[in-house]
Amino acid sequence: SAVISQKPSRDICQRGTSLTIQCQVDSQVTMMFWYRQQPGQSLTLIATANQGSEATYESGFVIDKFPISRPNLTFSTLTVSNMSPEDSSIYLCSVVGSGRASEQFFGPGTRLTVL
Amino acid sequence: AQSVSQHNHHVILSEAASLELGCNYSYGGTVNLFWYVQYPGQHLQLLLKYFSGDPLVKGIKGFEAEFIKSKFSFNLRKPSVQWSDTAEYFCAVIPDSNYQLIWGAGTKLIIKP
User: Fold this and answer.
1) What is the arithmetic mean of pLDDT over A51-58?
2) What is the C-alpha to C-alpha distance for residues B49 and A103, in angstroms, rounded to an integer?
3) Alpha-carbon Rg of chain B, whole angstroms?
4) Closest chain B CA to residue A43
5) By the 8 A CB rule, do A25 and A70 touch?
């Protein structure tokens, strides 16, 4: 299994500001993803973080709003830009573990509240 | 479009009751199937998974799920629930060899002591 940590664990931000969330994995992984879990809803995939190239965004998510970095195989960041209250959510990093295709592991999440 | 549906959004049971949470998916090809659990204040954890072989899969904490291909279903079961099973349960599917999970909406399970 992969152990994933995220920083910060929670934050309260003002409208119009930006927050960068960090995801650190204890082993090298090929696939890293960023999800959003809005209150009372299921997880929604934001993007696949690609090492060495631009992230692949899902429909409804754009790079200007959610820029993602993936400088190496163990680390990624997601920035939530120009925040509004609608961005209040839990943001989760996940990875596909090595040695067993398709099994995903999840970080503890970052609980973001935008005032 | 591929989708996963969980039949109940909220389930309330008493301790020792039997549990079955429904999960159906819409995809005609090969799938990998998962149940994840999120306990209050904790992150998502894998409960059990099905890739191939015996369609009756046993997971952690006494949970099991049965893959019925003809019904496109992967229902989660536990014969006798405990108060500590209070959590939100998510069914998820990966079609073919894709890495992208398709999630159900989740079922909030509350066990009354």
Assistant:
1) 89
2) 8
3) 13
4) B103
5) no
Contacts of B99 in chain A (CB under 8 A): 31, 48, 96, 101-102, 104
Give residue B98's identity as a one-letter amino acid code: N
Which two structure tokens, joined as six digits, stand for B23?
């999960």
Distance from CA of A77 to the nearest CA of B (A): 18
Closest by alpha carbon to A78, among A42, A115, A110?
A110
Does pLDDT of B108 surpass 80?
A: yes
Chain B: closest CA distance from residue A64 (Å)? 22
Rounded to the nearest angstrom, the minimum Cα separation between A25 and chain B is 15
Strand A10-13 to A110-114 pairing = parallel
Extract the runs of DSSP E, i.e. beta strands, from A50-88: 56-57, 68-72, 75-80
Chains A, B: CB pairs < 8 Å: 44
Two tokens, residue B59:
């997971």
**pLDDT tens digits, one per residue of B6-49:** 988 899 999 999 999 999 999 888 888 999 999 988 878 889 98
Q: What's the pLDDT tens digit per position in A26-43? A: 988 888 999 998 877 778
Q: Which amino acid is at A109?
A: G
**Confidence bin at A70 (pLDDT 50/70/90):** very high
Select from A31, A42, A102 the Cβ nearest to the Cβ of B32: A102
DSSP string, A6-50: EE-SEEEE-TT--EEEEEEESS--S-EEEEEE-TTS-EEEEEEEP
Q: Encoding tokens for residue A49?
A: 């973080």
**CB-based contact (8 Å) between B56 and chain A?**
no
